[in-house]
Amino acid sequence: MGTGGKPADGGAGATPDGVRAGVAIHGTGNCPVVAASTAHEGPITGVTWTHAGDTHTEEFRARDPDAVDGAEGVPEPASVVDLGDERVYRYERPRDGTCACRVIEELDCPIADARAEDGVLLLTLHLPDLERLRDIVSALDGTAERVEVRYLVEGAARGDGSPDRTLVDRGRLTDRQCEVLRTAYRMGYFERPRDANASEVAGALDISPSTFAEHLATAQRKLLEETLAGN
Q1: Pairing state of beta strands 45-52 and 87-94?
Q2: Would you give the distance in Å from CA 178 to the centre of its chain?
Q3: How many domains does the chain have?
Q4: For residue 48, what is the enclosing H or E element?
Q5: Rounded distance between C-alpha atoms, residue 109 and residue 130, angstroms
Q6: Which residue, 127, 154, 181, sits at the end of a domain?
Q7: Can you say how many angstroms the Cα of residue 148 is from the centroid of all Cα atoms in its chain?
Q8: Nearest Cα residue to 23 out of 165, 185, 132
Q9: Residues sharing a CB contact under 8 Å with residue 187, sequence separation 6 or more, in sequence order
Q10: pLDDT tens digits, 48-106
């Protein structure tokens, strides 16, 4: 404890300066849950896992059993319990050193939430600083086609305890990129669970899902360059 009963810097009562990040991992071909999500209506949620020896055991919740049973790449998941509107599945497979979640865990980063939707692995991470986020993105470079930071909440504070906010120049975005972001936000694309998927937002914009994804990725990259600059 510091003087006057106040916690010393870095103590339990100190103001944290970490970040909360939403990361989308595209092209994880070795993830059975992601494979199942390609045919599943809505997200597959409650993804958890454990390791025992050389065996990786994973569990997840799905609302559409037929989509899970018919998905390619899922190693015979066993139905564990029926919860009415969704079913809990569990499967086992050999431990895989290229599994995205394991790569992140090996960097000593717990995963706060994991889900899969439309063939994309969606993770929520609580990290001590932006440098750790860069480490994760770099480590995933060889295990996925593309890693996208979908949102970033920075809780940094200066020494006097006041917020350290980052100003973002929205002028770097084109009118179309702003429209894509606004429409996606208005329709609930960034909510968890989502109120609208990529196809629905693309339809509202009268563009293809691939064009929507391209505009969204470009806009997010520009905003992240502004947010992370100088950190």
Answers
A1: unpaired
A2: 22
A3: 2
A4: strand 45-52
A5: 13
A6: 154
A7: 8
A8: 132
A9: 195, 196, 200, 201, 204
A10: 888 888 888 888 998 888 878 777 766 777 788 988 888 898 888 887 767 888 889 88
